[in-house]
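In full, the data:

***
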Amino acid sequence: MEFNLPNCVGVMDGTLFPLAFQPETEDAADYHGRKFQWSLTCLVVSDQKRRIRWYITGYPGSAHDNRMLRRSPLKVRKEEYFTVYQYIIGDTAFDPSENVVPAYKANPNKAEPDDPDERLLNKVISKPRVSSEHVNGMWKGPKSC
């Protein structure tokens, strides 16, 4: 594998898709996201070749990435998506589990974790995590002026 992570089958990241107008729904306020006026959240898993291997969308812009994962088939029916020892990596938004390896969170007022092993893991998974950001950017296309 390009990123030298045995048994890693993908990189997971959330992204937002802006909506042109406020949804006409009872829970419209939930679609008000942190980056756009109105948006949908999408959780994307891509591979080492920057191919989208799985995604789920339709959650309002205010939905947290980890909330989407907890309710997704990747978590609810994980045996259909992972074999023994397989996992995906993600950012600090995700809780660790047998199939999800997130980056370690930094301690308050610090740029990185105190533990050297945690810093090393964050460094090792940083390249694939950047790749997943690129995938999301390519999927959404060039920015319009």
Q: What stands out?
A: The chain has a mean pLDDT of 85.
